[in-house]
Design brief:
There is one protein chain. With 670 residues, the protein is of the alpha+beta class. The protein contains 23 helices and 20 strands. Helix 4 runs parallel beside helix 6, helix 9 packs parallel to helix 21 and helix 15 packs parallel to helix 17. The longest helix is centred in the middle third of the chain and has 20 residues.
Length: 670
């Protein structure tokens, strides 16, 4: 009788907090996490480093792991030739930024995940790529053969590699922006240029920008949606409509996938990321506020339900992502066979569901299955029936094997969801949504704020890694959103602590802007200081915007001056090509025209009522401060038996207003 194969011995990744690293804990590869042990060993042995960067929801990361990292023969090659380091790009975005930039320099191609980089013992990259198959395929070399060739080059061409490394380091250093010699006079021209650029790449049929694959780009959509011009707003609204009709939106369970592989938003790459869904909640809430469109409201409600059902920990914080794969197949959890639909729904509902979600057409997923999209409108008397069909399909889908969930708690991504949840709560006046945002905030303040320092990540009670700029900036912006939904003194205190930490630990006070890593962070081959938005907003853009708002609110010149220095630093880039800088453009817009600040003071019920009626307009900060609060001087307006409103813009303030209709008239002119 054959005995069962013994389980593999765990490697060094078994004790890591990252689910992605833990997925590789039983590989035969002798993996190290990034750290002093691995880097010192590489230098002592003068051995090249094989650096593999990915994340737990990444489909092609799983493919490469299954083909190569789980294979004993491939692992033997890797172990013999390299010090092998595995990195979760979500826990170490600093490393990911650096080596993605280096990959682009070395290959003249954009990167992605998995990122596979070969480094000299001092951490300098000399060759790289993304996914490599085990055997040659699609013009790519087989991974074991590639490893052999890389080591041969490392041994035989060391002087050329050293010269290239020096050039790469110089090129990385040259990427840093430089403050102009003379301060510029800021103006709104970059904002208009960005709107024009988005218009030129806009897809008027399907919405979005460019061709497939299509990503949501929430920051660009926010710039369009909050424009004072009609055409940009219509571009944003069309895109949001087309997205909610497509398969990038989960028609059965709510929530958005990371991107669409086609121009129609029909078939997604199925992973769901917290960082997309937070900003999209804000966008769809504002789209509903502008249009009163029931579809926008439905998407907000369904997405919040998904977040609360599948992405919220018992602690109140939010998990990071859901995998694209289940049972080893991408999208298997989400797609349907026609016989399943017929059996579950019966003849009448099956016909309606087929027409509504496209099941009556040809299969749209790999030629054999259907992924739901909105294919036809509903008559008024069909709405209840299609909702009944959705609930039946959802209940059946819940019985399937679910995609994996990355349960680490990332400060920056939690902050993006806190902002989205709190903003949606303000727009729709939902106390339960606000409670969710506050619970996540309280977790971060309790667990991730340690001895005056913010931490980046935690899982199962293990909190670690000093936080990055994005963690501080996004959380400060989230707190400003929360303060407008329900003023808590602890949130304001936390906001001030974060703002001060950004200035003391991240700001380049001489050169302007903020470094991505703190002044006492591990020394790496580059210290990024970027203003460009990526999948998430720019930390520098959000920092400038949030510091300006907090500075105006508290009359704190240090915050305003830091924001001004950041805008001056990036002004040459904004002036030359504003595309991809939407976060900084929001800060620029409010540097030119400060936000209108409305302080409501009086009995709690009345202040909340006025605040609800004022809504959540862009370019406005509204705080309801009921009697009895202990407040800092700039906010400590006199208490009264009836509501009074203090309206300020920049350094200009009006006399208190006691009549709500008069307040509306005043605000209509601002």
């Amino acid at each position: 009788m054959l005995s069962a194969a013994a389980p593999r011995r765990a490697n060094r990744l078994a004790d890591e907090t990252s689910p992605y690293l833990q997925q590789h804990a039983h590989n035969p590869v002798d993996w190290y996490p990034w750290g002093e042990q691995a880097l010192t060993l590489a230098q002592q042995q003068d051995k090249p480093i094989l650096l593999s960067i990915g994340y737990s929801a990444c489909h092609w990361c799983h493919v490469m792991a299954h083909e190569s990292f789980e294979d004993d023969d491939v692992a033997a090659v890797m172990n013999a030739l390299f010090i092998n380091i595995k990195v979760d790009r979500e826990e170490r975005p600093d490393l990911d930024q650096i080596y993605q930039s280096a990959h682009q320099m070395l290959t003249q191609r954009t990167g992605g995940w998995p990122l596979t980089m070969f480094l000299t013992p001092d951490g300098s990259p000399f060759y790289g790529g993304t996914y490599f198959p085990k055997t040659p395929r699609h013009g790519l070399p087989g991974f074991p053969d590639l490893c052999q060739r890389v080591v041969e080059a490392f041994a035989s061409k060391r002087s050329e590699i050293d010269a290239q490394n020096a050039e790469v380091r110089r090129a990385l250093a040259a990427m840093a922006p430089h403050m102009p010699g003379t301060p510029a006079e800021l103006n709104s021209e970059p904002i208009q240029n960005a709107l024009d650029l988005l218009a030129r790449s806009f897809d008027p049929r399907w919405g979005g920008f460019g061709r497939a694959p299509k990503f949501p780009h929430p920051t660009d959509l926010a710039l369009l949606l909050h424009s004072t011009q009609a055409q940009p707003r219509q571009m944003a609204l069309l895109t949001l409509h087309k997205m909610l009709e497509g398969g990038i939106y989960d028609q059965i369970g709510g929530g958005f996938a990371r991107y669409s592989v086609d121009e129609r938003w029909e078939i997604p790459h199925f992973e769901k990321m917290l960082y997309d869904n937070g900003p999209l909640l804000s966008l769809y809430a504002d789209a509903w506020a502008q249009t009163d469109d029931a579809d926008f409201r439905r998407v907000v409600e369904e997405t919040v339900t998904w977040v609360q059902r599948e992405m919220t920990a018992s602690s109140g914080a939010y998990f990071s992502s859901l995998d694209a794969d289940s049972e080893g197949e991408e999208g298997k959890f989400y797609v349907w066979r026609r016989n399943e639909i017929d059996a579950l729904l019966g003849p009448e509902k099956s016909v309606l569901a087929g027409r509504r979600w496209g099941f009556d057409g040809a299969p749209n997923f790999e030629g054999h299955a259907w992924h739901p999209k909105i294919a036809a409108p509903l008559a008024a008397d069909e709405v209840a029936h299609i909702e009944s069909a959705r609930q039946i399909l959802f209940a059946a889908r819940e019985q399937r094997i679910h995609p994996g969930r990355d349960e680490k708690i990332l400060t920056s991504w939690n902050a993006l969801m806190i902002s989205g949840m709190a903003h949606a709560a303000r727009v729709f006046q939902r106390a339960d949504w606000l409670a969710s945002a506050q619970a996540a905030t309280d977790f971060l303040r309790r667990e991730h704020w340690r001895d005056g320092r913010l931490q980046a990540t935690s899982k199962d009670g293990h909190v670690h890694l000093d936080a990055y700029l994005d963690d501080h900036a996004f959380l400060l912006a989230a707190l400003l959103e929360l303060l407008q939904a329900d003023f808590r003194a602890s949130d304001l205190e936390f906001a001030i602590d974060l703002a001060d930490a950004m200035l003391s630990r991240f700001e380049d006070s001489a050169g302007g802007g903020f470094f991505f890593t703190a002044h006492d962070h591990e020394v790496l081959i580059q210290r990024p200081k970027t203003g460009h938005d990526n999948a998430t907003p720019s930390g520098n853009g959000v920092a400038a915007w949030a510091l300006q708002r907090l500075g105006h609110l508290l009359g704190e010149s240090r915050y305003l001056a830091a924001a001004e220095r950041g805008l001056q630093l990036y002004w040459p880039q904004l002036s030359q090509s504003a595309g991809g800088f939407s976060s900084l453009l929001f800060a620029l817009d409010e540097a030119l025209v400060p936000p209108t600040i409305v302080i409501l003071r009086g009995p709690a019920e009345q202040t909340r009522d006025w605040q609800a009626k004022l809504g959540a307009a862009a370019g406005r900060l509204v705080l309801a401060l009921p009697n009895g609060l202990a407040l800092p001087a700039p906010l400590a307006k006199p208490e009264s038996e009836h509501v009074n409103a203090w309206v300020c813009q920049g350094v200009s303030c009006l006399s208190p207003i006691a009549d709500y209709r008069q307040l509306e008239q005043v605000l209509s002119t601002k």
